[in-house]
Amino acid sequence: QVQLVESGGGLVQPGGSLRLSCAASGNIFRAYDMGWYRQAPGKQRELVADITSGGSTDYADSVKGRFTISRDNAKNTVYLQMNSLKPEDTAIYYCNAELQRRETMIRRNYWGQGTQVTVSS
């Protein structure tokens, strides 16, 4: 069973920092694009940042200069370092990855279960 497991969410004051982690587990042959999305109450899910297997990154304009995405290909893990957090960053953050399973060699998109990030004083 292939799955994505997120960790690192929580409650933080405005201006604070959090680091999210997402590890892909199971019989994985290769991880392709990996990224983070978020969904605030009453809003659509939106892309926060993504990273290719080669390390190319893309960010939503709202987080540029504050968030940094990175990955460890050996561990099939993606990270999101979030600095200078604002109340409007409050949302459930979801990990997303395109993974290729070893036993079938099929590539498909996977989602994590989500982790809550709350920015409040």
General description of the model:
The chain has 121 residues and is an all-beta fold. It has no helices and 11 strands. Strands 2, 4, 5, 6, 9, 10 and 11 form a 7-stranded mixed β-sheet that branches. Strands 1-3-8-7 form a 4-stranded antiparallel β-sheet, with no helix packed on it. A hairpin with a 4-residue loop joins strand 7 (67-72) and strand 8 (77-82). The relative contact order is 0.32. The mean pLDDT is 96.
Hey, roughly how much beta strand do the residues contain? over 45%
Shape label: elongated
Number of helices: 0
Query: What is the H/E string?
Result: EEEEEEEEEEE
Category by helix and strand content: mainly beta
The overall average pLDDT, rounded, is: 96
Contiguous runs where pLDDT drops below 50 for at least 5 residues: none
In angstroms, what is the radius of gyration? Answer: 14 Å
Short description:
0% of the residues lie in helices and 58% in strands. It is elongated, with a radius of gyration of 14 Å.
Which key features would you list for this structure?
seven-stranded mixed beta sheet; elongated; 121 residues; mainly beta; four-stranded antiparallel beta sheet
Q: Topology of this protein?
A:
Elements lengths: L2 E5 L2 E3 L5 E8 L2 E12 L6 E6 L5 E3 L7 E6 L4 E6 L8 E11 L5 E5 L3 E5 L2
Parallel strand pairs: 2-11
Antiparallel strand pairs: 1-3, 3-8, 4-5, 4-9, 5-6, 7-8, 9-10, 9-11
